[in-house]
Amino acid sequence: MIHSVIVKQGGAPGDIVSRSRDTHQSVLKAVSWRTLGTLDTFAISWFFTGRIEIAGSIAALEIATKIAWYYLHERVWAAILDDESGATAIEYCLTAVGLSIVIITAVNGIGTNLNAKFTSINSSLK
């Protein structure tokens, strides 16, 4: 196995009691990575807009969604790497492709509204 597991005291290495440590590690990794990413987003937004309140709004908006996406990404990869059958790995990949198609469709659907909003923000910055 690629990840660590918790085994009961005195148990054999194959006696798995809990994988909660992996879940906790994934959450901590997601939060620490997202904190760095949000600071980066904030700095870039501030650099381009010159306005700290807009940079803060952008950074605040993206932090929760990206933590959730990272956690999901981490768990899917953990499941793929744990599974020894090729069929399940393919199923996960197909699920990821399907989810990507849904996301792209949704983003295209709201793209016009976002474009109008960003155009409005851009003109208010000038």
List the helices and strands and how they pair.
Elements lengths: L5 E2 L8 E3 L1 H30 L2 H31 L3 H40 L1
Structure description:
- The protein is mainly alpha-helical and 126 residues long.
- It has two domains: 82 residues, no CATH class; 42 residues.
- 80% of the residues lie in helices and 4% in strands.
- The protein contains three helices and two strands; from the N terminus they run ββααα.
- It has a two-stranded antiparallel sheet with strand order 1-2.
- The longest helix is centred in the last third of the chain and has 40 residues.
- The N and C termini lie far apart (56 Å).
- The N terminus is likely disordered.
In spatial order, strands of the major sheet run 1-2
| Span of the ends, CA to CA | 56 Å
Rounded Rg: 20 Å
Total strand count, please? 2
Q: What order do the helices and strands follow?
A: EEHHH
Low-confidence region ranges: 1-7
